[in-house]
Design brief:
Order of helices and strands: HHHHHHHHHHHHHHHHH
Shape: globular
Number of helices: 17
Helix content: over 70%
Number of strands: 0
Strand content: under 5%
Largest sheet: none
């Protein structure tokens, strides 16, 4: 029996994208608690504790502002899980050409590089097909609305070829901000193909330890840590957990065990968010909370999340565009009105965007 069924994977994607969409709106509102995503600031967690100690009508938005970005580690977990299921566990589901590109045993360096190139080209084009349409729409909306971003040529090229994460100060370069994920995934596909594909689990564990140690050495509040977190070093933990879970994961039989594991995961997320060392490992507990939560959802919620997961890629691409259009509503005082309009518009437009995307040719190996 699969650790996660297709339905559960889709539902988990739906939960992850909902967290991301809400976070990317809420954390731009005035007076909200700032998250610890690319760096660690203990004052941000202290502000969250104050929000819990003195709750008001904006508590939900405060929670989404601080914790919502953890939808990203869930996506990384699912991406790695999917790679194992697709290329290592169920190769019969893969086209012959693509399977040959990744599973072939090249007899020379040239053949090896050619195999890796075909794999990377295929996955880059999958990301590009999705990204470029949204990026063009965003450029138009950004220019027509107040506060247009100033793009340099290298910023545009960096986004198109997905290397902008590697540029100095990526947090000032990448706009819209959520599109940093495309460059990150290109890096992770490369790491998987060259270092982790069908390797002993020790390779994945060693890489997790190495990347976590690099972040610890960088220390909180530094530009170095910010840079590492914008690139694959900061993403290896949830990505590696996804690989290990798919290959040797533990699945709990029975609702009670899943519920207990879910509750413990939530407590660990909250507890370790308050210290730098603990914060480095929070994505691991986010993943465990995710894959147990979908085992607990009633069928009606599972179906709704599954549907949302089906449009998650389009929703990820489209929501930054609509955020810039609707967030002034919340800035002018109608906080929840703006949020609800933004969320509904994002879902509807994502569905329409997906119809357009399906008309574009799909990449071939």
């Amino acid at each position: 029996m699969a650790l996660l069924t297709r339905t559960e994977c889709a539902a988990l994607r739906g939960i992850a994208i909902l967290l991301i969409v809400l976070h990317n709106y809420c954390h731009w509102l005035h007076g909200m608690v700032h998250e610890n995503e690319y760096n660690f600031n203990p004052d941000n967690f202290a502000a969250l504790l104050r929000a819990f100690a003195h709750p008001d009508g904006l508590l939900f938005i405060q929670i989404m502002s601080f914790f919502g970005h953890y939808g990203v580690p869930i996506f990384l977990f699912l991406s790695a899980y999917g790679l194992v299921m697709k290329y290592e566990t169920s190769p019969a589901a893969v086209s012959d050409h693509l399977l040959e590109a990744i599973t072939s045993k090249p007899t020379s360096l040239r053949a090896y590089l050619s195999s890796a190139w075909r794999f990377m080209r295929y996955h880059y084009l999958k990301l590009f097909r999705m990204m470029i349409l949204g990026f063009v729409f965003f450029l138009i909306i950004d220019r027509l609305t107040p506060g247009a971003h100033h793009y340099r040529l290298v910023d545009i090229l960096g986004q198109v070829f997905m290397f902008n994460n590697l540029l100095p100060e990526p947090h000032h370069v990448i706009w819209p901000g959520p599109y940093w994920f495309f460059g990150l995934m290109v890096q992770l596909y490369l790491v998987y193909r060259l270092l982790l594909y069908r390797r002993h689990w020790g390779w994945t564990l060693a890489l997790i330890i190495l990347c976590t140690a690099a972040q610890y050495i960088a220390r909180p509040g530094t530009d170095t840590l910010n840079y590492l977190r914008y690139n694959c070093v900061g993403a290896i933990l949830p990505f590696g957990i996804g690989l290990l879970y798919a290959r040797m994961g533990l699945t709990f039989q029975g609702r009670t065990y899943n519920l207990l594991f879910f509750i413990v995961s939530l407590l660990l997320i909250f507890h370790y968010s308050g210290s730098f060392i603990g914060w480095l490992f929070v994505p691991m507990f986010v993943c465990s909370a995710g894959f147990t939560l979908v085992k607990l959802l009633p069928q009606s919620l599972l179906t709704a999340c599954q549907w949302l997961g089906g449009i998650s890629a389009a929703l990820f691409v489209i929501h930054p565009i609509l955020r810039k259009i609707f967030i002034p509503i919340s800035h002018h005082g109608d906080t929840y009105t703006g949020l609800i309009i933004y969320l509904l518009a994002s879902i509807v437009c994502a569905y329409l965007f997906l119809l357009i995307l399906n008309k574009l040719p799909k990449p071939k190996i």
